[in-house]
């Protein structure tokens, strides 16, 4: 039985792939899919070539934006919390009524 042929890439190709990740600001997975590589292969190249270097602007950028909720967001959160509490209460009432109609008491 013959296994899959292992692909080899030149150092120049690896450098260009790592540079594409760094310059585009896109995820390693997205660049890997575009280049037809496995995520783990490209991630290893990034780690090997990025060791000891200053992190790029894309690497320093936080993955999530921590912002304080505005007044509109705060009002929406409060409304959703009230609705959530009301729905929990309705659910509990239905659970209790099912127990009563089924003949069992909880």
UniProtKB/TrEMBL annotation:
The lineage of its organism: Bacteria, Pseudomonadati, Pseudomonadota, Alphaproteobacteria, Hyphomicrobiales. Signal peptide: none annotated. Pfam families: HTH_Tnp_1. PANTHER family: PROTEIN DISTAL ANTENNA. Residues 70-97 form a coiled coil. One of its GO terms (molecular function) is transposase activity. Keywords: Coiled coil. This is Transposase. InterPro entries: Homeodomain-like_sf, RD_transcriptional_regulator, Transposase_8. GO terms for biological process: DNA transposition.
């Amino acid at each position: 039985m013959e296994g899959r042929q292992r692909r080899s890439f030149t150092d120049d190709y690896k450098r260009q792939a790592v540079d594409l990740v760094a310059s585009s600001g896109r995820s390693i997975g997205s660049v890997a899919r575009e280049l037809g590589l496995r995520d783990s292969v490209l991630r290893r190249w990034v780690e090997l070539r990025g060791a000891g270097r200053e992190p790029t602007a894309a690497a320093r950028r936080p993955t999530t934006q921590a912002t304080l909720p505005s007044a509109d967001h705060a009002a929406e959160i409060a409304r959703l919390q009230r609705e959530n509490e009301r729905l929990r209460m309705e659910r509990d009432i239905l659970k209790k009524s099912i127990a009563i109609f089924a003949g069992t008491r909880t």
